[in-house]
Specification:
about 290 residues, single chain, Arc Repressor Mutant, subunit A
Length: about 290
């Protein structure tokens, strides 16, 4: 479901501070950026793109991908004192010349990373908790905006967990290294085919051993794990958006063995491809 948010063109952001006993809203996406905080919601299942996690008592997520589906599901949560603070703001809140100033570099980087969804650590949540708590009750709009900018800046100082894969989120995330960029672009264009280590190493003028070490150092992943994650990301997107069979998707995404695909998918996502599709379709509403 594509949500039409209450945010007007004349407002910097919209905030909703709710006390509730359950989550009932279906999986959805929207063009507006969103910062979502939940309290006393242990056991809730959070779905952002192809990431699925059961959260604890506190959860804070930033989403800036306009086509990145997300939902908070009741799952195993039994709390009757759930609090949810949702802040939605326009992508053009920071007009171009403003966000590109040096003083906003960390915020700009955070908003870019949040196209895949970002989950903040407890230390960051505690840092901004009081500001979030009082933001909805701030009567002066100007000061509310200043408080909100401070929240974004403080959050940008922490290492947040990236949630969705790039291929599911439909974005291109490239390394700062030109050599790695070249390899990433090659993999994105040829993930359906067999990709050989020697071919990639030759393309950047390195030996296979040196390239493997270099790629792992720059990306934090082995080459094989990186390729698998790209293929799994495309597979999850096809499971959600297409009616192709699991077998068709397996081979369309570069896997050459169905049982191997099912095994890897379950290891990465915690469920089978069929279960992933059924869960998404059960929660997804088309209007």
């Amino acid at each position: 479901m594509r949500e039409i948010t209450p945010l007007s063109d004349r407002d910097c952001f919209y905030i909703a501070d709710r006390h509730k006993t359950e989550f009932t809203y279906p999986i959805h996406c929207h063009a507006e950026f969103e910062l979502n905080f939940t309290e006393h919601a242990s056991g809730v299942r959070r779905v952002v793109g192809d990431s699925t996690e059961v959260i604890g008592d506190y959860d804070l997520v930033l989403i800036t991908g306009k086509e990145l589906e997300h939902v908070w599901e009741q799952h195993e949560c039994t709390s009757k004192e759930i609090r949810e603070i949702t802040i939605q703001f326009s992508p053009d809140l920071f007009f171009k010349n403003f966000i590109n100033k040096n003083q906003f570099e960390s915020i700009r980087h955070m908003l870019d990373m949040a196209q895949r969804g970002l989950s903040f650590p407890m230390q960051a949540i505690m840092k901004v908790y009081n500001w979030l708590d009082s933001l909805a009750s701030e009567e002066q709009g100007f000061y509310a905006v200043m408080h909100f900018l401070r929240i974004l800046y403080e959050l940008s100082q922490y290492d947040a967990q990236v949630l969705s894969s790039t291929s599911f989120a439909k974005i291109e995330a490239l390394s700062e290294s030109r050599r790695v960029q070249k390899v990433q672009k090659y993999i994105a264009e040829h993930y359906q085919e067999e990709i050989r280590l020697n071919t990639l190493a030759d393309s950047v003028g390195m030996t296979p051993v040196s390239f493997s070490r270099f790629f792992h150092l720059r990306t934090g992943k082995t080459l094989s794990d990186y390729i698998i994650d790209i293929r799994i990301g495309y597979a999850t997107r096809l499971l959600v958006d297409s009616a192709r069979t699991v077998a068709e998707i397996c081979y369309d995404c570069g896997f050459n063995n169905l049982s191997n695909f099912n095994r890897i998918f379950k290891r990465k996502k915690g469920c089978s491809p069929k279960e992933f599709r059924e869960h998404y379709r059960k929660k997804k509403v088309v209007i």
